[in-house]
Specification:
The protein is 23% helix and 29% strand. By secondary structure, the chain is an alpha+beta fold. Helix 3 packs antiparallel against helix 4. The two termini are 30 Å apart.
Length: 363
């Protein structure tokens, strides 16, 4: 799935000039990916005025009429009570099928958004070179002499526009970018507590203490290298562990430390990249593996909407020039209504003693 950061970045489109006297009209933003075996889900947001974008506020669109059309049948999606702006329908009512074309229609106030997607044929991983990797500390000194860590191959779906690969550390817990404003709330609450200390009774501070402790527990439970078993994951390289440990020693606010930890894990726990449609092989390599433990490698055969969006929104993380901006296939709004099929496998990664980097294959 597209990282949520890419979708949030769209909130700034059309409202990047904070000196404008009048805010531009809000524009609907859609994010939806259909896949066989999953419940259809549509997330609706709208662009924010410049004075609200950097406050971290959500721009959920509630009360919209959201329908997915399959041939002559129209299916209405219901808004989830716990997550405003998210519209869902059980797969039992609308099973997503490879090769079929689905249309999306959204009506909200005076806005109408339309899009269509064709679900690619199934993709199947046919060959995996290894399922266990050993990494060594000397990799930085031996750059260029690294053994190829592994590759996998797959079948070619006839109607896939390209492929998206996700390599994810399964045992590392983290939060999305939407948690960053909460770290600012923590700093605000701590500053208020310090300001009121000695001026009001302990009982008066109890509610404030409870909110502070609640946020601290939330961050500690979710931004962590501690597994459910209680064991702590290790970074594969000592220097990365040292960078992680330095965060605690910085002269930063508590909220900023949590932000830095979240951002570090966000950049390290998952790597996504794209592969053109005429390629039938991919790699899982040392740059995308940061921790000991289990990784899942997911291959998605993407339709044109999904593939175009991924390769142009921040250029799929390629670092290429992105002046042209994301490519959308949506009428009456922005975003993506795409589809994919996928296959996956898992790989175990662990640290070895010093020596020449090598690949260990287990059967």
């Amino acid at each position: 799935m597209i990282p949520y950061l890419l979708f949030l970045a769209l909130l700034a489109l059309g409202c990047s000039n904070p000196t404008e006297i009048e805010n531009p009209p809000a524009t609907l933003l859609v994010q939806s990916y259909l896949a066989p075996g999953t419940d259809p889900e549509v997330v609706l947001r709208q662009t924010l005025p410049p004075d609200q974008y950097y406050t971290g506020r959500e721009a959920a669109v509630s009360g919209a009429q959201v329908e997915i059309i399959d041939g002559t049948q129209r299916y209405a999606l219901a808004e989830a009570a716990a997550t405003p702006g998210t519209y869902q329908l059980p797969a039992a009512q609308l099973p997503i099928t490879s090769g079929r074309t689905y249309q999306l229609q959204v009506r909200y106030q005076d806005q109408v958004l339309n899009a269509a997607t064709t679900v690619p044929d199934p993709v199947q991983i046919t060959e995996i070179s290894a399922d266990s990797l050993v990494y060594f500390q000397l990799y930085s000194d031996l750059f260029g002499a690294l053994s190829h860590p592994g590759e996998f191959r797959w079948t070619r779906p006839a109607n896939a526009a390209g492929y998206v690969v996700r390599v994810e550390a399964l045992q590392v817990r983290n939060l999305s970018i939407t948690a960053d404003p909460l770290t600012g709330d923590l700093d605000t609450l701590i500053a208020r507590h310090d300001r009121l200390q000695g001026q009001v009774s302990a009982d008066s501070l109890a509610a404030l203490d409870q909110r502070i402790d609640s946020l601290r527990r939330y961050f500690a439970d979710n931004i962590s290298l501690v597994q459910i078993t209680g064991d702590t994951l290790r970074w594969l390289r000592d220097r990365e562990q040292e960078d992680w440990d330095k965060i605690e020693g910085k002269d930063w606010s508590e909220g900023k430390k949590w932000r830095e930890r979240r951002q570090t894990l966000d950049m390290s726990r998952m790597v996504t990249y794209w592969v053109p449609a005429d390629t039938l092989r991919g790699d899982y390599w040392w740059a995308g593996l940061r921790f000991e433990g289990e990784y899942q490698v997911v291959l998605q055969a993407a339709d044109q909407n999904y593939f175009d969006y991924f390769t142009t929104a921040f250029n799929g993380g390629s670092g290429d020039d992105g002046d042209s901006g994301p490519l959308f296939h949506v009428e009456g709004g922005l975003g993506v209504f795409g589809a994919y099929t996928q296959d996956a496998f898992r790989v175990q990664v662990y640290r070895g003693k010093e020596g020449t980097p090598k690949l260990v294959v287990t059967k």
